[in-house]
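Filed under: proteins

Residues; backbone shape codes:
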Amino acid sequence: MWKGPPDMTKPGKYEALFFPTKDGLLKIHAYGFNPCGSWGEVFATIGDQTICVKGFNRHKTIVRATKMIISATANRKNEF
């Protein structure tokens, strides 16, 4: 079971977003991006799949991570 990003003990700005989907609960954990222009990480999870994306723009990185996890979930469903 996934317990969250590895550096959860670091102080700073941290966001957790949760969205219900037909495949399960989409969990998005974003941290970093502070001050503006500094890098950050976004972890996206559905079920047992987790994807980590790093970037400088918080909004674009969250969107990229969400697209990647949805694409990976769709590909996994097509395999079976």
Remarks:
- The longest helix spans residues 58-79.
- The first strand starts at residue 14 and ends at 21.
- The radius of gyration is 13 Å.
